[in-house]
Structure formats: structure tokens, C-alpha cells
Amino acid sequence: MSPILGARGGLAASAYGFTSTVAALPGDYDSIASVTLSSANSVTFSSIPQDYKHLQIRGISNAGSWIQLVINSTTSANYSRHELRGSGSSASADGNGNGDLIFALGGGSTYPTAFIMDVFDYTSTNKYKTTRALYGSDQNGSGYVGLTSGAYLANLNAVTSLTFYSYALSNLASGTTIALYGVK
Questions:
Q1: How far is CA 88 from CA 13, 139, 142, in A?
Q2: Which residue has the higher pLDDT, 25 or 179?
């Protein structure tokens, strides 16, 4: 019996778009910084080391809001975004081609919410930076899950700072923790 990703018709699996690339393993992440808030309207990670392949941001909050990411202090109209959201009863999609890079963290709920965001090839000066965020909340059986992808279109500069704002509320919730990791 031949392996699923083996050769077919004389061509290697890679000819069909399959690769043997393995996702990063737990030991492939280095903690760069972590912040737990008592009260603040933003969290900024600056002077980000430039010796990793990608960045990953992990966050958890006791109350949700819309979160806006600002890269290198560049504000609105410099990002594109696509978003898919779903709950047990509905699904929706949203996006923009020239606006803010935002994603939902509970939409103002009182239930814990969490997200994981990746910033790919953040040191490259040859391409626009792309992001991916997975987020959600259980909300006692009636929660949701979402996936957002985005692109930073202002310039090709390396990412040196990331700022997370509460998009709809005046402050990020007390107890919110946001941690920055470097992916080797």
C-alpha cells in the first residue's frame, strides 16, 4: 500500500501542492513579553527583536470587545481584512479593503474570551505583512468562534511595534492578558 502523500503518476506529492512542512512545535516559541492589565486602553509591544521567523500573540480577556491592531504606529486605512464568525445558530462574514485591522473578542460580553494571532514574516522588507487570528468564547454554551486574516499595506518595513486597542470600549478589560512570542 502506498502512503497518502506518496508519488502518483510518477510525480512527487509536492507536484500536487502537498508539502512535508511541519508546523512549529511548542519548543519553537520564545516568550518575548507578557502584560496583564488592571486598566488601560492599549497594550504596546515595541522594540520587537528581529531574529524570529514569525510572531505569535496570545490573549485572554474577562470581558470582550473589538480589538484593533496597529502595526508600527500606522493607523487606519492601511489594512485589509477578511473575517468569518459563527455560533451554534448563525454565521457571518465581513471585511474591508482599506481600513482598520480589527477582530472581535466577545463583542462586549462578560464571558472569558481568547485569541491567538500570527504575524507572518514580520522582518521581511520584500512583502506586505499578513496576519491571522483565531478567537472565540464559550459564553455558557452559546458562544462563537471567528477567524480573521489581514494585511498591513502601508509599506514593506519590518514590524518593530504592535499596539492592541479596544476598538469599541474606552479600556481593555481589567485582567486582560496579552503575550508576545517569537516563532523560530
A1: 37, 11, 7
A2: 179
| Per-residue cell: 165 | 486597542
Largest CA distance in the chain: 61
Please report, for residues 1, 24, 38, 44, 127, the alpha-carbon distance to residue 33 in angstroms, rounded to integers and kept in the order given: 48, 19, 17, 10, 26
Please give the model's pTM, rounded to 2 decimal places: 0.80
Average pLDDT for residues 53-81, to the nearest whole number?
83
Cα–Cα nearest to 165, from 157, 173, 153: 173
Helix (H) or strand (E) segment spanning residue 91: strand 91-99
Residue type at position 89? S
State yes or no: pLDDT of 45 exceeds 90.
yes
What CATH number should be reported for the domain whose range is 25-183? 2.60.120
Indicate the length of the chain as a whole number: 184
User: How many Å apart are CA 144 and CA 173, to the nearest integer?
Assistant: 19
**How far is C-alpha 48 from the chain's CA centre?**
16
pLDDT per residue as tens digits for the range 1-26: 434 444 444 444 444 444 444 556 66
